[in-house]
Design goal:
Layout lengths: L2 H7 L3 H11 L7 H7 L8 H13 L3 E4 L4 E4 L10 E7 L5 E4 L2 H13 L7 E7 L2 H5 L1
Parallel strand pairs: 3-5
Antiparallel strand pairs: 1-2, 3-4
Helix pairs in contact: 2-4, 3-4
């Protein structure tokens, strides 16, 4: 059974609420923003949010954007099997697009192999301006 599908059906109440907040968001959310949104649902401490986020990341349902210290719902179901995940982040409007590229993945793996490095996962964040913001 695909772990991605299995995890989605076995989420705890807190994980489901955090996942819902991220899924309904137009952009990335910090743990504290999620906490503020979920206070009416019984969330009182950042640790509750971080525990849920850690599991959602582990399940491949959520990605952490390191440069923003924020989280986004996965837009490509099953991508937890991909070795490379890349994001294009607009520095003006905050829009995040998740992308995957097989050629990039192969090249990064080859670079790691040449260095005798056991690559497990790669997350790439491209920062710039989306098409809409360039036109504005």
């Amino acid at each position: 059974m695909n772990e991605h599908v299995h995890a989605a059906t076995d989420l705890t109440k807190n994980q489901t609420l955090v996942m819902g907040a991220l899924t309904n968001s137009d952009g990335p959310l910090s743990a504290y923003t999620i906490l503020d949104q979920l206070r009416d649902h019984g969330f009182r401490a950042p640790l509750q949010v971080y525990r849920a986020l850690d599991k959602l990341v582990e399940f491949g349902l959520v990605h952490r954007l390191e440069s923003l210290n924020a989280f986004v719902a996965c837009r490509h179901p099953g991508c937890d099997g991909h070795q490379t995940i890349a994001f294009m982040i607009c520095e003006s409007c905050g829009q995040v697009n998740e992308i995957s590229d097989g050629i990039l993945t192969k090249r990064l793996k080859a670079l790691a192999d040449e260095a005798s490095f056991a690559l497990k996962k790669t997350t790439i964040e491209l920062r710039g301006l989306c098409r809409s913001c360039q036109a504005a």
